[in-house]
Fold:
Amino acid sequence: MLRLPPTPLFVLALLTTPVLAIYDAENLGQWEKPTQIGPDKEVPGFLVNLGPTGARAILKERSFVVKHVFEDSPAKGRLQLDDEITGANARPFGKHTFGKCYGMQPGNGIEGPVMDLGLAIEDSEGRDGKLVLDVLRDGEPIKVSVPLEAIGRFSSTYPVDCRKSEQLAKGAMTYLLTREDATRGPVHQRGLYGLALLAHDRMKEAEAFALSWNEMPGEKEWTWYPSYQCIFLSEYYLKSGDKRVLETIRKLTERLYLSQVIDPADYKDAMHGGQPQAANFLKGGNGHGARIAGYGTMTITTLMAILSWELAEDCGIQIEDFNRDIAYDCVHTHTHESGYMGYRFATGAYTPVGRQGLSLIAHKVAGRTGADEHVAAVTRGLVTAKTRLNDGHGDNVLAYAWALIGVRLADDRKAMRELFDYNKAFINMARTHDGAFVAQPGRNRHEKAYYMSPRLHPTAAMAIALSGKPRLRIQGATP
Structure:
């Protein structure tokens, strides 16, 4: 039975507020704020990637304004800076509505230029590869033809049994293997990079990475660190049988007990930023830090801990049932009957899709009895939230990585189809001309993905999500 906490008035207000798309027309000033990481350093700001064309642009209500074109890309010598793209393949772009997106309702998604160009790319790649853009150049309308590779369309079952998906996944993996910095950087990136190696049977590289990461993190590392490390090392052990990582896996599971609230009364005096936080420390939930601090527990870190424990148990590590049971109870209690999963409570907050995907993965790996109602509700909720795939908090790649991986484990093929089919355009638009994927602007004012790991994190996510054959437990493979 899904249980709901009392719904405060401000949440009821959120439920009736229209939910819109990219945060604002100025992209919070980020159109002209470049990243300092990787090949995107040459791009003048956090721009919309125009798929494999090699161009980046500012998004307007019904158009894109080109602000960067990569060398050796299809758009080089064809598109020029300040070209305004108003349509593609003889179809004018629809209207995009700007605005923030908080709360439980799905609202508008990527409708408008983002969806229209993404689908035009799909059409062109399914024919001869020729993408014909309607462009205003110096006020004059012209046609610009950008030659793309004719790699075909996504199949009706993609990413399963789909030649295009498999080709994109392999291209993403090839890109990752060319980047020496893939084993460094944020732990989210490192964790998914390691999982991508395993998902593509790159066991030699996975072994080297696992052994380089086969030691405990510092005691002050946030919960993300031991979780990603434990998930990767567990999947590595399950594929390789390499006992050298077992002791680290065991210690990581114990570290995650320390970030879990056992008795909320212990936090009755908790403060953060000068504000009382006691109500935010939920029994069974995990917080940011390895030893709980800050502003309480979060659903996503709790699910990461649960998944870590479940995978570690598959490796033969004994897990404390008490800790695991209260973690599940926390997640189930604070899931809305609609399947919406908030930041920590059942209602209101940022996009739920990453949490929903993780919940499906954790429950599938566990094979836990008595959770059918929760799993069914979360699956429905994930479909409802299909418009919010790129609407993350802090790192929107966390949202779509776990959503795209998780929905494939749902026992509802229609749900998987709805999420993937709606976001076909988003996937095409996030692709770069050199086989990678790049973070795209979203609806949250706290979005930082482009400034933490603009390509490596999203590329690793797509290398896993678009891979057709399940090779990992988180993809549904059996141990």
